[in-house]
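Go through this fold for my students:
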Amino acid sequence: MSFCVIDAQRCIRCGACVTVCPLKIITIDTARRLPVSIAEREPLCIQCGHCVAVCPSGAFTLSSMPPGSCRELTPGWDLSFEAIENFLCGRRSIRVYKNDIVTKDSIEKIINAARYAPSGINRQPVRWAVIHDPARVQRVSGEVINWMRTLIAQGDPMAVALRMEAMVGAWESGNDCICRGAPHIVCVYALRDDMTAPAACTIAATYFELAAASLGLGACWAGYVQMAVNAYDPARRAAGIPRQAACFSSLMFGYPAYRYRRIPLRNPARILWR
């Protein structure tokens, strides 16, 4: 099949597909006044699908992405700024959870939304490790504590900077200061040598947190888990992260024990205009 196929009957000759292509792979055939691909640039395609998505008449088909396979955005889907502002500003880091288990179907629904988070040149390097079993969550948390014990014994400055002795003491007293009693963890990881991965995984984790809130769930960034998984082999194995990968973001999540009713104050934005 050709790189792209244009339905001449449906094409309205607006040229939007040409304009939005980030690699300038598409041009206009002046004789037929139709979009065509530039053969020598076709290998540059990053499969972003903008050409298919922008076409107002559904006339543009990529060989790998026919318009019929793409969900159509219907009028009225967009939210008001006020709704988005309340949603974003009302987000809280949840550290107190119910014992209720989140279904795998709900988690997959969240991940299927979060996988649309942007990534550099559409590399889509993000992978997801979901620790669904609460007993496994406790095992991961325990390995994080063991990592802290190792750093304390070594006299590592990070152990002092992050008050790890207090963390270990709290854990030994029965206080889960690592995952706060959350029933689940998600580690967002990628191959460690992918230069786009740190930003892509962080953005995807942010999408996950926000999408989770729309289903009545809460989350909190699990920085200790992320650090331990990358630095301590037993923690990595407990979380199920492949050796050649790195965890760039991790979240604890579950159903919040409390509902937050106000938006707390934050510092004013620091903006530098030029």
Remarks:
- Residues 8 and 173 are 72 Å apart (CA to CA).
- Strands lie at 4-6, 26-29, 34-37, 60-62, 127-131, 184-191, 218-221, 245-254.
- The chain has a mean pLDDT of 97.
